[in-house]
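User: two proteins, same treatment. go.

Assistant:
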Amino acid sequence: MSRRVQVVYLAAAWCLSYPDEDLLAKVPLIRAALAEFPGAGQDFDGVLNLLEASEPMDIQAHYVREFDLGRRHALHLSYWTDGDTRRRGEVLGNFKKAYRQSDILVDTQGELPDFLPMVLEYAARVDLAAGRDLLIRYRASLEMLRFGLLRDELPHARILQAICATLPGKSPADEQAVMRMAGYGPPTEAVGLDPYDPRLLPVKGA
């Protein structure tokens, strides 16, 4: 079971990353790895088909538009829980602390440590238990991202579904259920000029 989860996490990490030439070249490898486990590839087919059928510049522009320029599909887990509050610095420090506790140096490559593909790759390659704990702790973020992708009919929603399926319990039926699952109201202390997004949910025990 752990091997299947590792493959799902690594495939998800790559499929949610910027589609550069290196990633596009990995598509056959991703398909082959998922094929080892019956049914594991179904949630990835939409994104993999998109990567195979699109021109590199087109798929790269699509990724930037959907994941970099807006916040509707933010891939940073603490964005959904803490937004632009002072508390987020402490939360990001907790991610770094989790990485430092492993015996392998984690290179963030200039990304914030809560970047979902990084958390997934950490879980797949370095410490499955610790990485999975981070995903469980930020389950509300994963579910809100999933709903955002579903709303905009992006195939990446199925990948979030596959990630959530590896975690305890069923996925909430709607965004209100995610808020009830989180069990908190929104933070009020904002920093900077960006407006607070009402979808942000603080995490218990963070």
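Protein 2:
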Amino acid sequence: MLSIEKNTALVKAKAQAFGFDYCGIAQAKRLDEDARRLEAWLNKGLHGKMQYMENYFDLRIDPTKLVPGAKSVITLLKNYYPHEQTPSGHGISKYAWGQDYHTVIKQHLRSMIQELQVDLGQFGGRGFVDSAPVLERTWAQRSGLGWIGKNGNLITKGSGSFFFIATLIVDVDLVYDDPFAKDFCGSCQRCIEACPTQAILPDKTINGSQCISYFTIELKDELIPTEMKGKFNNWMFGCDTCQDVCPWNRFSKPNSEQGFTPIPEILDFTTKDWEELSEEAFRKIFKHSPLSRSKYKGIQRNIKFLKS
């Protein structure tokens, strides 16, 4: 039987081998403080029409309900900051420039779990990539990887916030990292002041129902509310404003993941190209892109809204 220390070292070595930039580990336990905060956020309706946020409340706040017998929550970060410059046409959030990160990261996570099953012996566990009721940012903070900024993003002191978060919940005892205790946002208000729709509230609360990403991705209505006209700063899919202005992102480094290489059309398409794009071409070009989440109809709605 390997020691807890050796098991922990194996987990962190595998994380690095499979291309994850950071790995932190926390003890699996119920998140009582987050439960109160999430309940208050939902009660205020700050999730807008994202009804799925109301589902599986107990699972979100207790990893042992997701994985029976869970003992450890392993948090993995993967950098997506691009090498390239911004697109020539409408604004598209950097996370969506390449292949769908769910697919890319799940492949790495699946292979990592398979190798750990050999190295550690058979264990119970599940891996998640933004597709299950897991409070990833809280677990990242509890794992010592960074703090949750005023813009709601996890910020690492050494590399900024352009990271995807993956979570592996296992029934294995490991050595737990100390939580990241300090908030290095300090008195900085840049993200609050720069948010085009005032979605970032002063008390470190995000009004999800006012976020540009909500309107351009999550909202499935046929039309975007007219009161938002002129407030999107040319963002067609998502928004990076609060990250772009964050001083900590001056430390961001280009990623090394082949799967995040930008789709050429993302960088090259002009407004006219987007307007003239057929649904058939959209499906072919963006088949493996996060843009497919909004579908052709949603992208065209967003473009028309920006022009109106």
